[in-house]
Amino acid sequence: MSCGSGRATVTSALRFLHVVAAIAALSWAVPAGATTDIALWHAMSGELGRQLEKLVSDFNASQSDYRIVPAYKGNYTETVTGAIFAFRSRSQPAIVQVNEVATATMTAAKGAIYPVFSLMRDQGEPFSLTDYLPAVSGYYTDAAGNLLSFPFNSSTPILYYNKTMFRDAGLDPEMPPKTWPALGIAAKRLRDHGAVCGFTTSWPSWIHVENFSAFHNLPVASRANGFAGLDAELTINNSVLVRHVAQLAEWQKTKVFDYGGRGQAAEPSFQNGECGIFIGSSATRADIRANSKFEIGYGIMPYWPDVKDAPQNSIIGGATLWVLRDRPRAEYKGVARFFAYLSQPGVQAAWHQNTGYLPITRAAFELTRSQGFYERNPGSAISFEEITLHPPTENSKGIRLGSFVLIRGAIEDELEQAFAGHKSAQAALDSAVERGNKLLRQFERASPDR
Ligand SMILES: O=P(O)(O)OC[C@H](O)CO
């Protein structure tokens, strides 16, 4: 699945939020004893979609006042774009799942969003931000430390490998490559033994630029990756990243690395045994386990060992649940109840275990450990270990850049130019910086808070 389509519409569509949200909220009357339906628009397909349906149906069965009605609306970009345009016809859902990359843009749409900290307070539902892992909650709080969206599904990239292909190529199936040089050697060996490709990855910018930078303690942008101000500028044309992209482009020539497209498009080539190594979201675990017919190995994201501070810590991805305004008042109580339900350690732990998304509360991690899940499922704690590897620095806390959906698109355009051999890595990243900075300045000029 590619997140390319609809990207260009996100920013213009968000302008409608400011306008439409100014219209006063309606408060439809709900007959006593009736069940209130609450729409949840999401982007979870495949095994993740099935797990989400189960979670929702468990909540619906746990009480009779509210019924969450999930609807799959396409990939992340299509889902948020659809919700924004639904404002035009006043048919927006109460809850929409938005991936991490659109956080700054959603945050800027102030009148259209109902911040989670206000919702939980207004509705009198229990909620404690300190229960959540700082690496998760820190990504979604405002400058005052208030939580804006509910951190439903947080992931981080990990390495997967095909133990059967490793054995066949004479590689140790219990030794995942830990560094980029080691991964290059293993992937070449796989190719020499007949693999269609050595390794591939999903989410090109998230993995090779955003997480790569955090893991090497390098900034993606000035101003603390954008957290400290809207005047941030991209810094991704540094020598470490240029060398990395140049190496990927070199490996691409012999399919030691094989570029597999944007979003999750590359996943099938690992699941069907074409590529022996895959770097992708920890939440790909559910689909890989469901669809692969080989023994799966897991490892941490590779790093360049000559870079000081590497490995630092990875950053989260995935998505959060945003609450949209102008729905009937009765729905918001149900949304708050649903979020309180999702925060329960048992519910959190089951979601983490069934999907590969991170245990977003300390209690869910401890419960999962005490249940022996990590011992029974080797590799399942890697995502947690990566994001907590070291205390986050300014470079590894996360990214808060306006129009980042579009910026990520520009970065991926340029990576594709480099992988196709049309541009040098330096020229591609210089161009990504130039294009990204233009988008940042446009966002800064359009922001009411600047
Ligand atoms: O596939 P997910 O849900 O882990 O998301 C990965 C990226 O963070 C999306 O921006």
From TrEMBL:
Compartment annotation: Periplasm
Q: Which UniProt keywords apply?
A: Periplasm, Signal, Transport
InterPro entries named among the record's database cross-references: Bact_solute-bd_prot1, SBP
> Which is a Gene Ontology cellular component entry for this protein?
periplasmic space
Residue span of the signal peptide, if any? Answer: none
The answer, when asked if Signal is one of the entry's keywords, is: yes
Q: Which Pfam families match?
A: SBP_bac_8
| Chief location | periplasm
From which domain of life does this come? Bacteria
| Keyword check for rRNA-binding | no
Subunit structure of this chain's protein: The complex is composed of two ATP-binding proteins (UgpC), two transmembrane proteins (UgpA and UgpE) and a solute-binding protein (UgpB).
The family assignment reads: Belongs to the bacterial solute-binding protein 1 family.
Which purpose does this protein serve, as stated in its record?
Part of the ABC transporter complex UgpBAEC involved in sn-glycerol-3-phosphate (G3P) import. Binds G3P.
Q: What is this protein called?
A: sn-glycerol-3-phosphate-binding periplasmic protein UgpB
